[in-house]
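Long-time lurker, finally posting.

We've been working with DUF2975 domain-containing protein (Sphingomonas hengshuiensis) and I want a structural starting point before designing mutants. I don't trust myself to interpret raw outputs, so I'm hoping someone here can both generate the structure tokens and explain anything notable. Sequence follows.
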Amino acid sequence: MARRDRILRFTVAVLRVLLVLNIAFATAFLVATLASVPLHDMLADRIVGKYPAIDVDRVVTGIRALLLLGIAAAVPAHIIFSRLIAVIGTVLAGETFASPNARRVRQIGWALLAIQLLDVPLLLIIPSFAGMGVRADGSSISVGGWLSVLVAFVLARVFAEGASLREDLEGTV
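Top reply, 14 upvotes:
Generated this for you. Predicted structure of DUF2975 domain-containing protein:
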């Protein structure tokens, strides 16, 4: 049990680092998006210097869209990291099937779904970089990602049933 606790505590530490990095990157993406407006000409000059035959406004718009997509992705990532930390906290406390865990795992499922749906605008943005050596023919849609959404919702139901059984058992003792 002690080994498992060490693994869980290590996982919590990793998730906390990921939470901080997520906020830092979202902030950096926001700053870069805002800075790209007054620095548009400088950015355009650099792009034209490297890719003279490119539609620079389309590329800059694509860059801004990718940055905004990164900011949008930070929200469900934050939900996933923070809810996992909370679930692990209850597991470490010996309360694995606590009622809130079902809700937390369901929220993780919705966050995973949001991340999967962010692939749609990504597929629309990638063609903005045509002519720069960026391949737009590949899909970023992941079967594994969609399966993880389903697994999260199934686990949320398992946690809800476990919490219900636990409450029934406590009521009979």
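Before you design anything, note these points.
Residues 2-172 form one domain.
The chain has a mean pLDDT of 90.
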